[in-house]
Model the fold of this input.
Amino acid sequence: MSLQQTITEFRSQFRGNVLAPEDTGYDEARKVYNGMIDRKPALVAQCTDVADVIAAVKMARASGLQVSIRGGGHNAAGLGVCDDGLVIDLAPIRYVRVDPASRTVRVGGGCKWSDVDHATHAFGLAVPSGIISTTGVGGLTLGGGMGHLSRKYGLTIDNLLAADIVLADGSFVVASADENPDLFWALRGGGGNFGVVTSFLFQAQPVSTVCAGPMLWNLEDAADIMKWYREFISRAPEEMNGFFAMMTVPPGPPFPEELHLRKMCGIVWCYQGPMEQANAILQPVRDYRKPAFELFMAMPFPMLQGLFDAVYPPGLQWYWKADFFKELSDEAIAKHLEHGSQLPTWQSTMHLYPVNGNVHRVGENETAFGYRDAVWSGVIVGVDPDPANRGKIVDWAKAYYEALHPFGSGGAYVNFMMEEGQERVRESYRGNYQRLAAIKAKYDPENFFRVNQNIRPAAA
Done:
């Protein structure tokens, strides 16, 4: 059967839209969050259900087309879309069902975190996730998942109970502690290497209103604030989370006009508890170095999750570099100041996310996530809407990374990585890589799912 015949037969079995380059909607369907990515797949299969996913996998196998899996499309390297292959687009599989009695949440593979936050908040619940509500549930979860609730409730994968997944041979299985436990282990941090996850079952946590928001300081205070922060965040109550940023003040409300586009440093806080306790915990930093600006207030958790969505709409040019760190030395702080003070565009930034508290209570080998002993996950992002500034943001991010990498632990959070080669993937899984490679060989021996931070199947 010719490729065209295979595609024609596939269309007849498929309930969702199948878009080819000549079809209306194709150009929109191939776009991803990172505007730097411009790939042209042969087909985009917009799956409505599990049956569509199975049909797409089987068609790709029969035709020899390369496959990429698109959830929310947020992946740093744009790995949800591939050139000349088949994009299995899960966007239409977008549902959330909350069971308030068991505090569990069933989430479709095409959901974004805004969908989950909206549904769970009605019940006074939340699933630990990231910091941008437009991020896809699938990609963030499979890479680990860190954000505002990590210190109290762990990574997103630490709250994952089960997943429905279509494998490379087109079969459907459930992965949980009781069913296919080896696959369940690998999904918790191993990325999109093992199949197409069509739904997730999460344990939700009691989170409703949080005390949260940014505190900003002038750049000349950055070294002192970083030194204070490195001591504070390691011993703060686990209900208190805060990530550090080198940033430029956005040119709009709620920031005062005199601060617009000023380079500053900041900490974005999230406290689960009453405002009086939050203020008591943070009073020492106010006394130590009075913030030039703060917007610390009680807010619904979904409001915090969406706080930065307007600053980072889809379609901007992004270049990412990242590392895990065990310590934040004075020497490293000096490098942060040198490069963080040279932000090339106002949306470019550096974040240090705390990786401690409950994250450290899970053993290094209990999930595929390889850096349970890290204290920070650092990410440097060059961001700008104009493709003409690509060289500027890439060069800055690379130089910043090269200055900080000697202070790192070797690997990085896979969700913060561009396409950086096989050795970098190995470094990011450390001692868990060989076990992942063996599980890959069991469930995807031909490396059918390879448009990802790829784990190659172990040789038999």
Remarks:
- Residues 148 and 339 are 25 Å apart (CA to CA).
- DSSP finds 14 helices and 17 strands in the chain.
- The mean pLDDT is 97.
- The chain has three domains: 3-89, 96-206, 209-416.
